[in-house]
Amino acid sequence: MVAIRIKEAAALLGVSDDTVRRWIGAGALTATSAEGATTVDGAELAALAADRARDPGGDDDRVLTSARNRFTGLVTDVEMDGVMAKVGLQCGPFTVTSLMSAEAARELGLEPGVIASAVVKATTVIVERDAHR
């Protein structure tokens, strides 16, 4: 068994330590305590991460897409200059930057604090926003 500390498990999944503790309390993860450190099994954590990637929760009217690499997070920065926009997102521990038309950024209503998803297909990053949020 690969033992992963709660803090590290939280960082790997982009959640808080308290969220990992709630998962342990709910039985989604099994905790082991030894020498004052609480850990979770790496294989169990990987299975939970895979389940969360397949079904991150939320509305049933999600966008259906062939792209499998989706990073949902908060818009942190939008820089526009005429025809182009540079949009930054903080997706858990990852920062994603996308270049798009300024028109697309305006149509999506992208501004700091907005929840959006970066969809990666091959070398292209597509930013989208749920119309209900």
Automatic annotation (TrEMBL):
<keyword id="KW-0500">Molybdenum</keyword>
<dbReference type="Pfam" id="PF03459">
    <property type="entry name" value="TOBE"/>
</dbReference>
<protein>
    <submittedName>
        <fullName>Excisionase family DNA-binding protein</fullName>
    </submittedName>
</protein>
<feature type="domain" description="Mop">
    <location>
        <begin position="64"/>
        <end position="129"/>
    </location>
</feature>
<dbReference type="GO" id="GO:0015689">
    <property type="term" value="P:molybdate ion transport"/>
</dbReference>
<keyword id="KW-0238">DNA-binding</keyword>
<dbReference type="InterPro" id="IPR041657">
    <property type="entry name" value="HTH_17"/>
</dbReference>
<dbReference type="InterPro" id="IPR004606">
    <property type="entry name" value="Mop_domain"/>
</dbReference>
<dbReference type="InterPro" id="IPR005116">
    <property type="entry name" value="Transp-assoc_OB_typ1"/>
</dbReference>
<dbReference type="Pfam" id="PF12728">
    <property type="entry name" value="HTH_17"/>
</dbReference>
<dbReference type="GO" id="GO:0003677">
    <property type="term" value="F:DNA binding"/>
</dbReference>
<dbReference type="InterPro" id="IPR010093">
    <property type="entry name" value="SinI_DNA-bd"/>
</dbReference>
<dbReference type="InterPro" id="IPR008995">
    <property type="entry name" value="Mo/tungstate-bd_C_term_dom"/>
</dbReference>
